[in-house]
Amino acid sequence: MNKSVVISGGSQGIGKALVKKFLAEQFTVYTCSRNQSKLDALAAELGSDRLHTFAADLSQKNQVLDFAAWVLKHTNQVDVLVNNTGVFIPGQIQNEAEDLLEKTIETNLYSAYHLTRALLPTFQAKKAGHIFSICSTASITAYTLGGSYCISKFALLGFSKVLREELKNQGIKVTAILPGATLTPSWDGVELPESRFIPADDVAQTIWSAYQMSPSTVLEEILIRPQLGDIDL
User: What's the pLDDT score for residue 1?
Assistant: First the structure.
C-alpha cells in the first residue's frame, strides 16, 4: 500500500527538500504554504501526481484545521507528519516589535500543536507512524538576536518531548530535529559562502534515515550543525 506524508511549509527550504525526498521514496505527499504561487511552482517543477498542495497560513488555527481536514478528505492513512512550518525574525526581548512573540509562537509552536492533534487519530487507529518536528539549535542555545524565535523553538522541543512520552506506548514514534544554520531563504542576503551552511537535502536525508529505523527503535532528538559550528545571530 502506498504510504503518505504530511509536510507543513513544503514550498521552499527544508520543507521542499523533504517533499522531494519522500516523493523519490514513492510516498504520496500532502503539503501546504501561505503562498499559492510558490505551491504552483513546486508542482510544476516536480511534476508528480502524488504531490498534493494546499494554500494555508498555519499561524491561523482555523487554517491549520482547514489543511488537516483537506488531508483527511484525501486519505485516512497518514504514515509520517513533519511539522516544518516556521518563521525567523531576528530581535531581542528588550526591543523587538510588540507583537513579535505572539506571531512567532503562533507560527512555530501552535501550528505544530494543532496540526498534530488534528491528524493524531489516524496514527492512533493503526498504532503506528512517525511525527517529526523541525526544531533548531535555538531550541537548546540562547542567541543574542534570538528573542522570540529562541523562545518558540525551546517550546517546540518541549512539545516534542511531551508528545514522545504520551505516544511511546501507542506504537507512534516522535522525533525532534535540531538543525543549525541551514541553507534556506531565511538566510538570503547574508554574505557567507554556501559551505558555511547545512544543505537542506542533508536534513531531509537525516529525517528519512530516522524514519527507516526498526519499530523497536526511535531517535528522539537529532542535533545537526554546520561542520564549522553555529553562525552567531
Answer: 62
The total number of residues written for the chain in this structure: 233
Whole-model pTM: value is 0.95
Through-space distance between the first and last CA atoms of the chain, rounded to whole angstroms = 45
Residue 162 reports pLDDT greater than 70: yes
Compute the C-alpha angle 50/25/205, nearest 5°. Answer: 120
Determine the angle formed by the axes of helices 111-126 and 147-167, rounding to 10 degrees: 20
Looking at domain 4-224, its CATH superfamily turns out to be NAD(P)-binding Rossmann-like Domain (3.40.50.720)
Could you tell me if 79 and 4 are in contact, meaning their C-beta atoms sit under 8 angstroms apart?
yes
Question: What is the rounded CA–CA span in Å between residue 22 and residue 197?
Answer: 23
Distance CA 64, CA 232 (A): 32
Residue 30: what are its φ and ψ, rounded to 5°? -115, 125
Q: In the chain, what's the furthest Cα-to-Cα distance?
A: 53
